[in-house]
Design a protein that fits this description.
Largest sheet: 12 strands, mixed
Strand content: over 45%
Amino acid sequence: MKQNKIIVCCMLLAMISCNNDNSLPNPEVMCTDLTTKDDGKEYFNDKSFTGSCYTLYGQDVDQIDEIRSYKKGIRHGVWAKYHSNGNLFYKSSSKRGEIDGLYSSYHINGNRADKGKLNKGYKDGVWEYYDINGILYLKEFYKNKMRIDEEKY
């Protein structure tokens, strides 16, 4: 009996540690297949859409431009955009229709450009900014939707 409890606990721990809400989804639906109704929500096949969709750079290009996530037709989950060379441009998330959570953007060469946290669409806490070579050059500190301090490097 004790062994069964240990096995169940190990399985739960493994499932929890593998669940990363900010990982990039692999959508199968194109965002152009969604329709916006009068209630402002996104629908797919006349049902409020839950899942992720993607956009392409052009009609003849099979390169993903953006990934968007929805829950019951409202922006919720990971959002990502790519540079034209295929490198990640930014990655963020939405919660109940508002940009919320960790945010990272990247230079076209793949090096990080900035990172921080958004709270209902506003910068919150420490934001770090990096040059094209990935060298930290500025930290900004936000509280209550306002920048309260900065450090230059």
